[in-house]
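User: Round two. Same drill as before: sequence, then structure, for each protein.

Assistant: Same drill it is. First protein:
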Amino acid sequence: QSLPQQKLLTWLSVLECVEVFAEMGTARAWGEMARWTIIVLIQLAKAILRLLLLLWYKAGIQTSPPIVPLNREQQQPLHPQDVEGSSSGKDQTYVGKRSSRVVRSLQSTPSLQSRHWGSPQQREESQSRRAEEMNQPPTPLGLQETVAESIYIARPLLHLLSLGVWGQRSWKPWLLSAILDVSSLSLLSDLKDLNRRERAELRRRTILLLYYLLRSPFYDRYSEGRILFLLRLLADYVPGLGFVTR
């Protein structure tokens, strides 16, 4: 990735980290009108940054969060002894004469912090495989997929606009947002040969469709009563859950 693209991803990640805090802080300090103003500004800034990444830098399907958090356990480097002896794996391992089982020799045992249960060859293979997965370029998007990703990026702004036109108690913003989400996923479903990160992102977006059951006005009309009934049922008849469910 180029330096400008990395900066865009960083700013996008910062916005996603602070948007809820900014919304709550603005509402507490200046009231409801300022709260909606900061929501619109943040969503507009996020949409602009994502469109720049999509159309200018050809970033493909964008994940949330934009910068994947580092798994320090998986990215842990090899022990220096392993690195020195990586060229001669036979010196690090011992093969049982009868069982043919490969075990690590006592001389090349790493420190407790970097110890693992696989052989050095398995460790090197898994690390190289993870590095390849992380460094895979984004899948090129055609016109249909670019439109689908643009719909997904613009959906929060269109939802806010529909809330301003029809109000928070109307079904139209809920339906519009759901239709845009489903349309985007349907258009992206034809895309093949996605890398691991992009497949995980599409699965995440599909699972997030369940949140529509918890969004007003669907929640107020249908979900709330059933969820509260289930919680009361658990509180009354399942020992130990009453404290949590109440």
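Second protein:
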Amino acid sequence: AGVGPQGSATEHGAPPAPERVLFPPTFSVSEIKNKQRRHFMFLRWKQQQRKEKLAAKKKRRKEREALGDKAPPKPIPKTIENQRIYDETTVDPNDEEVAFDEATDEFAPYFNRQTVPKILITTSDRPRGRTVRFCEQLSTVIPNSHVYYRRGLALKKIIPQCIARDFTDLIVINEDRKIPNGLVLSHLPEGPTAHFRMSSVRLRKEIKRTGKEPTEHIPEVILNNFTTRLGHSVGRMLASLFPHDPQFIGRQVATFHNQRDYIFFRFHRYIFKSEKKVGIQELGPRFTLKLRSLQKGTFDSMFGEYEWIHKRREMDTSRRKFHL
């Protein structure tokens, strides 16, 4: 007496009743009208999804351990990078046409070691403290660079003076609301000129576990994932800022890593722990660049001829389409 149907079934040896399904297959959180209840049920649904995913992962791992060497290879996870839409301008390293263009472009004297980079770093008019400190730290990263601050002088007047003083490149750091937000890089004397949007700027004091101040040794330069014709031009432009022959004894390396058309800059020092183990120590500063335009010749905002302009509404139709 007093025993329910589940209790009587268990006493007679029958299997227990199945557990109540928390979320039926046709369950939709959006159907719940109460906002608080909807949010609570959504969190529980996410928790259940995570548990199921973790259980499936453990099951696959046990199956692989049981099969041993006969286990099939792990599937390659799908990412935005490996699902990239093919670009017809992707550069083949063995292409004769590309080799000819590189031998005759504006950066050929640098790669032929006929010119030594000499960089002028300047700012927008009346820079604030953060932009000033960023320029000073950038000058310690780029060898043979000089910082001068503009006092209402137009870029069209600065460029002839730079050419007369044998500067090979001009870097202009723009700011908005006291934060650096743009970089203009003009290769002298004949261009091209690239305009980048700058973000995620971190000075040395803002980076955790930074090393000592960088030395005056010429750093090694690493360029990653500049695969298209446009990316190839931008990569050569960035490489021409640094002297061609690095001093490896300084153990310093400047990296321009292109990922989904965002160029991440990092400045590190190698730390050799033993003959087989090596670590890296970030020195700073760090920042991220996004190409907005590439212009033929030197800076000319009114009558300049543009090779490439980023048009957001026309070019950003697919997340898997990249231009660099």
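The chain has two domains: 29-69, 87-316.

User: Perfect.
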